[in-house]
Specification:
- This protein is of the alpha+beta class and 196 residues long.
- The chain is built from 7 helices and 9 strands.
- It has a 4-stranded antiparallel β-sheet, with helices on one face.
- A hairpin with a 4-residue loop joins strand 6 and strand 7.
- It is globular, with a radius of gyration of 17 Å.
């Protein structure tokens, strides 16, 4: 309500959202999309004041079913990544930091959630979106190779943001609408184990 009524662009909405998180904070973690006709950003805020925003490329396929999905991120990619001040410090104080501070790299989900395991909604989303995951379970899915968002390749170089999800076909409006009828994704389904 606040961002839509006060901001005229995605960048203005990001600045306003970050000013709220920086000053007042949030009482819970969340994932939020902020977009205009020119760009789309995905923001995860955790720990009240800590957040990372990533600018999504047009060809990125992702799923975010009530769980954190920002993985290994190089913060030097300033055109596509915005992070809160103290993002390393808070995780280091908690003894949960995963990454390489000298290289300006953080694994956000591991540093702030401590686990990147797929919840049932993610398992079902992957099975629906990508034929490579047919029959996959939470135990057989590798989060980093499958669905976590990253901007680092295997050699540690900054690359365009990616996930391991690949659509098996061109998705139609029917496919998108049918996604919301997938078990655990359906608004009528509940899962007490899924993070909120």
């Amino acid at each position: 309500t606040i961002l839509l009524s006060e901001a005229g662009s995605a960048k203005e909405a990001l600045a306003l959202f970050f000013s709220i998180l920086d000053s007042v904070g949030s009482n819970s973690g969340s994932g939020i999309f902020i977009a205009d006709v020119n760009e789309t950003w995905y923001v995860e805020n955790l720990s009240g004041h800590q957040y990372i925003a990533v600018k999504l490329p047009d060809d990125l396929v992702m799923a975010q079913p009530n769980m954190s999905i920002i993985g290994l991120i190089d913060l030097d990619d300033t055109e596509n990544v915005i992070a809160s001040a103290g993002i390393f410090d808070i995780a280091k104080q908690a003894g949960t930091f995963v990454g390489d501070e000298e290289a300006n790299v953080i694994n956000f989900v591991m540093s702030y959630v401590g686990s990147s395991s797929a919840n049932p909604r993610m398992v079902n989303a992957l099975n629906y979106l990508d034929p490579a995951f047919a029959g996959a379970t939470a135990e057989t899915i590798d989060p980093a190779a499958s669905y976590l968002i990253s901007n680092l390749d295997a050699e540690g170089n900054i690359v365009p943001l990616y996930t391991g999800i690949s659509l098996g076909k061109v998705f139609t409006i029917d496919d998108v609408q049918n996604f919301y009828h997938v078990d655990q994704i359906d608004a009528g389904e509940t899962d007490a184990t899924a993070p909120t």
